[in-house]
UniProtKB/TrEMBL annotation:
Protein family membership: Belongs to the UPF0125 (RnfH) family.
Protein's UniProt name: UPF0125 protein ISO4_00310
NCBIfam families: PRK01777.1
Pfam families, per the entry: Ub-RnfH
HAMAP family: UPF0125_RnfH (MF_00460)
Bilayer-spanning residue ranges: none
InterPro entries xrefs: Mopterin_synth/thiamin_S_b, RnfH, RnfH_sf
The organism of origin for this protein: Alloalcanivorax venustensis ISO4
């Protein structure tokens, strides 16, 4: 791979459908730019890359439009949470206490 090109992956998953797209991008490409260039939004109705939370290898990135990628990184596009994790833990604890 030429030093001016990076090999990256972009991934998004729903419970019933997942997509991983590998692509080569110019050095200096941001997470958001790679996600756009991958065309992944075309595979998922309603996926708004401009508003979607993103991360790299499980670590959330607060500013995907500014975060420049390094060779070999995987851009993960996260779905919105349906329930607050704290509320989910509390509900599980309450259910467990009733047994």
């Amino acid at each position: 791979m030429a030093a001016d090109r990076l090999h990256v992956e972009v991934v998004y998953a729903l419970p019933e459908k997942q997509r991983l797209i590998a692509l080569d991008v110019p050095a200096g490409t941001t997470m958001l730019e790679a996600a756009r260039e991958s065309g992944i939004a075309e595979h998922f109705e309603g996926l708004d890359l401009e508003r979607a939370a993103m991360g790299v290898f499980g670590k959330a990135e607060p500013a995907p439009a500014q975060r420049v990628l390094m060779d070999g990184e995987r851009v993960e596009i996260y779905r919105p949470l349906k329930i607050d994790p704290k509320a989910a833990r509390k509900a599980r604890a309450q259910r467990a206490g009733k047994d």
